[in-house]
Design a protein that fits this description.
The complex is a heterodimer of chains A (202) and B (144).
Chain A lengths: L4 H4 L4 H12 L3 H23 L2 H18 L9 H19 L10 E2 L7 H8 L10 H13 L3 H12 L4 H7 L4 H18 L6
Chain B lengths: L7 H14 L4 E2 L2 H24 L2 H4 L2 H23 L33 H4 L3 E2 L5 E2 L11
Antiparallel strand pairs in B: 2-3
Classes of the chains: A mainly alpha (202), B mainly alpha (144).
């Protein structure tokens, strides 16, 4: 698979553990390093759930501030990024409950690595591919819109598993549900996405 | 050997999964990342400064104390009033001094001399008791 979490994530858990221990003793340099390490991932997670840059920026801040405040209670039973993701998911879901959906789709930077992504190559290499004729920014916009049509529960599992690349078990732990429920939600979410993105299918 | 064919439904699911996974290439630009990083640090700084400045008295939430204090007093009052006082015989209201209406004796002194209005004193003729009254002609123009 193109998006295996253990392959794509270069997270050195040992280093994380050391940094967390240091941060727990009020070492700000260590916590800064943790922010740098996970800021982008947390941003991606929240952005794909809210589809709004301004909201995402606010929520990313809230997540790290909450993590800093609660760092003393982190016992190291789970991995730091799992714990951080859980804060991010909970904060975002709470936010989405309060907020009426705003369709302010503001596009941010696209990593040009997309063109070297095996999934992108495979999806565009076939003869007359509809994806090939679509610009990357247009594709991004369509994917965003399609994602926003999903319910919050379905969107969350798609973002965590298909985009962030977390394994089913990890997603299940974060959402305090079973692995089977996660798989089932993924199945129905993808079915819905199939209908939304029908034109890109070969 | 049996060759296993991928289920077409699974194939579609995989295709969608791959397509949606392309979203992982959406990233905040470096400027946004720096801004967020600085904002987080500023918030944490403010948080730490606030913690240091906060004394033990500062940790007590005055409004919470007042709120719960008032609520407790209200509960005590209501319990006393409805459960305790309602069983007692009717109690007369407390009297704060004389009840209304107040009876008072007013002594009015008779004046020694009744003063006559000045206008009347300008008259030319006098009455037998020495008080002067105006003539008819002088009183013309006055309305009685």
């Amino acid at each position: 698979m193109q998006n295996n979490p253990t392959d794509s994530d270069s997270i050195d858990t040992q280093d994380d553990a050391v940094l967390v221990k240091r941060a727990q003793t009020a070492d700000r340099v260590a916590f800064d390093e943790l922010i740098r390490r996970y800021q982008g991932k947390i941003y991606g997670l929240i952005y794909n759930m809210t589809s709004n840059n301004a909201d995402t920026e606010d929520l990313v801040q809230e997540v790290f501030i909450k993590a800093y405040k609660s760092l003393g209670r982190f016992k190291g039973k789970a991995r730091f990024y799992t714990w951080l993701y859980r804060i991010g998911v909970n904060q975002t879901l709470n936010f989405l409950k309060k907020r009426q959906r705003r369709s302010a789709l503001s596009l941010d930077d696209i990593d040009l690595g997309i063109e070297r992504d095996p999934a992108y190559i495979e999806l565009t290499e076939s003869k007359p591919s509809p994806l090939r004729n679509t610009s990357i920014s247009e594709l991004q916009e369509r994917l965003n819109k399609a994602l926003q049509t999903l319910s919050e529960k379905h969107r969350t599992v798609v973002v965590l598993h298909d985009i962030q690349g977390l394994p089913h078990d990890e997603v299940a732990k974060m959402l305090k549900t079973s692995s089977g429920t996660v798989r089932s939600r993924l199945f129905y979410a993808r079915q819905k996405l199939q209908a939304e993105l029908a034109e890109f299918r070969r | 050997m049996t060759k296993i064919h991928a289920n077409p439904i699974d194939k579609q699911q995989l295709e969608i999964q791959r397509l949606i996974s392309l979203k992982k290439h959406e990233k905040p630009n470096s400027l946004t990342q720096t801004r967020i990083f600085n904002q987080i640090n500023a918030s944490i700084d403010a948080l730490e400064k606030g913690d240091q400045a906060e004394s033990i008295w500062g940790r007590i939430n005055v409004f919470a104390v007042l709120r719960y204090g008032l609520a407790t007093l209200c509960v005590i009052f209501l319990v006393t009033h409805f459960m305790f006082l309602s069983d007692l015989p009717q109690i007369k209201p407390i009297s704060w001094g004389n009840d209304y209406p107040v009876e008072t004796t007013v002594t009015v002194q008779k004046p020694d001399k009744i003063e006559t209005p000045i206008l009347m004193q300008t008259a030319s003729n006098k009455s037998p008791n020495g008080i002067q009254y105006g003539t008819e002609s002088e009183l013309v123009g006055f309305e009685f």
